[in-house]
User: What shape does this take?
Amino acid sequence: MAHDLSKPVIVLVRPQLGENIGKAARAMLNFGLTELRLVAPRDGWPNPSAGPAAAGADAVLEQAAVFETLAEAVHDCAHVYATTVRKRGVTKPVLTPEQAAREVHTQQGRSALVFGPERSGLETDDVALARAIVTVPINPEFASLNLAQAVILCAYEWSKGVSLAQPTVEELLPPAPQDELEGMITQFEALLRPRGYFRPPSRAAATRRTLRNMLTKPGWNHLEVRTMRGVLSALERRIEDDPE
Assistant: This one.
């Protein structure tokens, strides 16, 4: 897997559990990030617990690089962001994940998002190495995010600046032409009329108008019209087989 130098590097500093490394890799790949760097993982690397937790993000784990220090891990990064819930006595610009993501997209040079150990977070020396601090606006009465949650928040904010979503089959289909809609509406009325739906006669026109507005409002495509007409045809056969 060749890494895109425009994408931020995710750096996990002294991660404690293999499962959390795997979950972080899964969060990364969900939003198009692939380069993972580990600083002194507690249980060594590779870790057999990481794979199952990654849920298919194996390529991220397989190419994860291991470093002894944070300085070594970000040696090629011009912009280093330390994620932490507090400033820890270091004076740095403080950004939200959204603000940091905008900077990553607009500035030149590689960027790194740095995350600390699960239990204690980044140490003061780790934060001092960064150019800026990223803090998630969070409930002050319960400021508790796990490692994968922190990674996914930052990865998601970065992904909003790129095109990741693929259109579905339904989104690719054009709206149904008017004659197909008219056929569906006519079929609805033919099915409802003998069942007494358009009573009393004085309200029949208004009821038909409401029905038409309802059936044209969603913007049906060709496949949806065909599906609905199939439903109506099935109902018609049932009524013919078992009339009142």
In short: The radius of gyration is 28 Å.
